[in-house]
Structure formats: C-alpha cells, structure tokens
Amino acid sequence: MRAGADNGAAPVAEGGRSTRARVLLGLVRPVFRRHWLRLVVGFLALVTVDFLQLIIPRFVKTAVDGLGAGTATQPLLLRVSGAICLVAIIVAVLRFVWRYLIIGFSRILEKTLRDRLFNHVLRMDQPFFERWTTGDLMAHSSNDLGVIQMACGMGLVAAIDALVMSTAAVGFMLAISVKLTLIALLPMPLLIVCTRVLSGRLHHRFNLVQEQFSLLTEFARATLVAIRLIKAYTLERFQEDRFRALGEQYVKSNLRVAAVQGLLFPISTLVGNAGMLLLLYYGGIEVIEGRISIGAFVAFVSYLYMLIWPMMAIGWVANLVQRGLTSLARIHRLLVEEPMAVHTPTLALPQTTTVYRCRDLTFTYPAGSGPALEGVSLDIEPGLLGVSGRTGSGKSTLCKLLLRLYPVPDETLFFRGVDVNRLDPGELRAAIAYVGQEPVLFAGTIAANIALGRPDAAMAEIEAAARAAAIDDEIRGFTGGYQAVIGERGIKLSGGQRQRLALARALLCDRPMLVIDDALSAIDVATEQQVLAAILAAIRGKTVLIVSHRINVLRRCDRIVLLDAGRIVARGTHRDLLVDPFYRAMADKQESHA
C-alpha cells in the first residue's frame, strides 16, 4: 500500500504462515503473560460450565429410562429436577465470572495496544507522517483494535468452548455408542475443507475492507478540516459525490466479506444437521432393535445437539482469527516503523557560544527529486538571525532540520558542538521553541492553547506571554477572555490572531532558542513592529531564527542569510545586503508601498 507499510510487512512474511502468525502473536503475548491469573480463573469457570452442561443429559437419561421402564417415582423425578436446577444456577454464576474475566481481559488488551500505538506514533518523525495518512492511523486505532479485541475476547472463548464441548460431547457419545458416533461425525470433513478454503479468501477481502475504511476516514477528516474552503468554492456536491463513491466501494468490499461469512455459518449448520439426520435414522433403528435404550438415545441426541454449536463455532472462530490476524498484521506494519532520526547516547552538552553549526549540509526529502538544501554552511549564534529568499529556496526546510524532524547526514549538523545524530531528538527539541507558518491550535480555551508547552504555567505568566505577542487586548475582548473556547483549529480567530497566539505559546516556553518560520505574515506592519520589539526584549542572550520576506523585520536582525535553490547566496546585515539584486528589489518594492 505504501513504502513504509511494505517494509514493515516483509519480516512478517518470511518463514511462511506459521512464522508470520508467531510474529504477530508476539504483539499480544506480553499482555497475556501479565494477566495470566485472570485468564486461568476465567477459563476454569468456562470449562466448568461446559462440563456442567454435559452432565444435564445424564440426568435426563436417568429420568427417561425410569419412565420407559416404569420404575420412575415422584421422589426420583424431584431429585433429577432439583439437580438440574442446581446445575443451572451454578452455570449462571460461572458464566458471569468467565464473561467478566475474559471479556474484561480483551478490553484491557485493546487499551494496552491502543496506548502502545499512540505512544509509538508520538515518537515518529516527519517522514513517517508523509507515508501514513491520518485516516490510516485512525482506522488502526478504531476498527483494527476492535477486531483484535473481539478475536481475543469472544473468539478465544468460542475456540476454547468449542474444543472442550466437542471433545467432551464426542467422549460421552462414544461411551453410549461408537457406531452411532462415527455415523454422526461422517459430514465433518466437509466442514474442515470448506473452512480452510473460505478462511484464505476472508483474509484478503477483510484486508481490503480495512484499507478502504482508512481512505473513507481520511477523506471525511480532510473535508471537515477544509470545510470553509469547500464552502467558499461551493464544492459541497462534488465532495458528496466523492464520499458516496468511497462509501459504495466500502460497502461492496464489506458485502464480499459478508458473502464468505455467510457461507461459513450455513455450511457449519448444514454439517451439524446432516449428522442429526443420520443419527435419527440409524439411531432409531438401534432403539427399535433394542441395542440402546430410549434414554441413551435421547442423551445421544442431546450431545449431538451440543456438538452442533462447536461445528458452527469453527466457522465463526475461523472468521474472527483471520480478521484478527489481518488487523494484527496492519498494526505490526505500523509498529515496526522506526524514526529515521536516530541517536546514540553522548556526554553532557558543552556550553558553547555557537548554538547550531551547519557544515556543508545537504538534504533531500525522502520523495524528492533533488536536494532541498545543498552545501549549506552556517553558524547560528545568540542574537537575531534573519533568513529570507525566494519561495522554495529551502527556508522552511532549514527550520525543520534544526528541529530534527528529518534525518541528516553525519557530521553536517551540530548542536553546541555535538553531532545531532548523537543526541536524543526529543531532548534537542526541548531546547527550541517553534512557531510554524501554519499555527496549530486545539479546540480548547485560549489559556490552554497558550500554555500547551507549559501546562503548569500561572495565569499571570500566560497573560504576560500574550502581551508580548500583542494579543492580550484582543483576548480580553472575547466573551470569557482567556477561558473563551476558540473552536477546532482556532476557527473563531483570524489568521493574525492565530499566529500571535502560537507566538505567545512559544514565548511562554522560554527556551534557549526560538525558531519563527514566517509566522508574522498575517499581521499588519504596526502590530508586527510591536511584536518584534517584545520578542527582542524577551530573548536577550538567546538565539532567534526568523524566516521573513518583510524588510521591516529583516532590518532589525543582527545578521541575514539569503537562500536560493537550497544554497546560501548572500549573508550580512541589512545594509550589507542592499547590494544584492534580489534583496534590493524586495526592499524597494516594500518601501514604495509603505
């Protein structure tokens, strides 16, 4: 389906189907080990229920034989009825026990896998999110985990129940009549062959269903995120048609799965009923000829009736197992992904003047056709560094590499004198506050959005950061002030307000380095200068890299770097760069429109 998925799937496929299943089951084995006592007690209760149910036909046999021979008495019938009632009560209690323990375990397993999945996604870097869509990840954490929960809950119960019931029922049937048992089980090979053939088809079809669910989920998510754009371009009908087409494909794939499932259950029932038909004919002859009693015949029929459920369960369990393994394989493909930005432990970082150093840094995006940065050498020191250049010149790429969102070659990027490939990317990012081109806000309060990087910040600190970002007055104008809810992705705010809110969040973090990637583009010049003055006051002794095309911003920088086609083509102060044709043209154009 995608490069990352294929790479993850390869190790699972090696060594055949048994190796594949063993690798996949390794995902859930630790949870089984951790909760083994819960499972043992639950399955003991389940097995006890099965054996108690198998005793009931013996009681019925005693009563029927007594009635047939004329030796039954009222006390005998009362004792048999009382025994059956007592067994029924015990069965009811034990059924609650095994359901609570085993089904509860399946929910614990689902939660454990979901937590692992979520934590794994959080530690991945940018290339991972370019290979996996949000729809993929949502499908894994909903549909796939639900299928695994079902397979490890009711599927496991049905498998154990069917095994115990079928083995015990056949044993009791053999005790009554070996001949009738063999006759009743004659249709069983048909069920085994059909289950094997249909299970293979089910695996492929269910995998397709899950992939189409991912596409459907991703399309719905993208539509909701871009709802204002869709309405602005009157694309509602177009989106409806596309969503309907995806839905129809999803339904068709589900119907193909249902066709296989629909065959498994009737075939199982047919095999069981065929055995019952043979028993009624040949067993009836045995009773007529006096080789078995009527009570034994009734008990035999009861045991065969109990055997029909395991026969049906074979198809159901096979269905759940195939779906569960398919979903486990999908989750395995995700979990075997590793961040490309790896590290090896190193000593404590030395305190050097130069924060970042690029040495002949060349970088190409995983799916890129050419380098986005080429031969970049740059020292980033305390103070305000401006970065500018034409669209697509590599400015945002440089910011992303400083944040370690992508891997870089060894010995090309250094943080405080240490190769970044020897550092923990998480610890490095903790030293940098970042404000991107597209501010990311959440559907919570304004205060919670500002305090995202410092959840324990006092309200006074939050307000101070908002004042530094020149948005405090506007926040107080909202109903509810700092407790106002801004909606999904900050939909209630203007573009400039979103940018300044994201900037306030970065200032509140108070980290040694601040990276601002063209994040002042949506505010007016007067507000921009107010914000810039607050930034300069707040970051004394710190390092700030600001990407901008605005001369009013760049002229206040200590140094400026110009990029073109991924290379540094000029560097210096505002005055120094006025000799550069591109920079001069940009300055003249902006000053003429001032």
Supply database-style keywords.
594 residues, 22 helices, 10 strands, 4-stranded antiparallel β-sheet, elongated, 6-stranded mixed β-sheet, ABC transporter transmembrane region fold, Rossmann fold, alpha/beta
Task: Kindly describe this structure.
It is elongated, with a radius of gyration of 35 Å. A hairpin with a 2-residue loop joins β9 (559-564) and β10 (567-572). By secondary structure, it is an alpha/beta fold. The protein has helices at 3-13, 16-25, 29-34, 36-69, 74-122, 126-131, 134-176, 178-184, 188-225, 227-232, 236-288, 294-335, 395-402, 425-429, 446-450, 459-468, 472-477, 495-509, 525-538, 551-554, 574-577, 581-592; strands spanning 356-363, 373-380, 383-389, 413-415, 418-419, 432-435, 513-517, 543-547, 559-564, 567-572. Mean pLDDT is 80; it is low at 1-15. The chain has three domains: 3-335, Up-down Bundle (ABC transporter transmembrane region fold); 356-431 and 511-592, P-loop containing nucleotide triphosphate hydrolases (Rossmann fold, 3-Layer(aba) Sandwich), CATH 3.40.50; 440-495, no CATH class.
Give me the secondary-structure category. alpha/beta
Report Rg.
Answer: 35 Å
| Fraction of helical residues | 55-70%
Strand content: 5-15%
CATH evolutionary superfamily of the largest domain: ABC transporter type 1, transmembrane domain
Low-confidence segments, given as residue ranges, are 1-15
Query: From the 3D coordinates, which CATH architecture of the largest domain would you assign?
Result: Up-down Bundle
| Largest sheet: spatial strand order | 6-7-8-3-9-10
| Integer count of domains | 3
Backbone shape: elongated
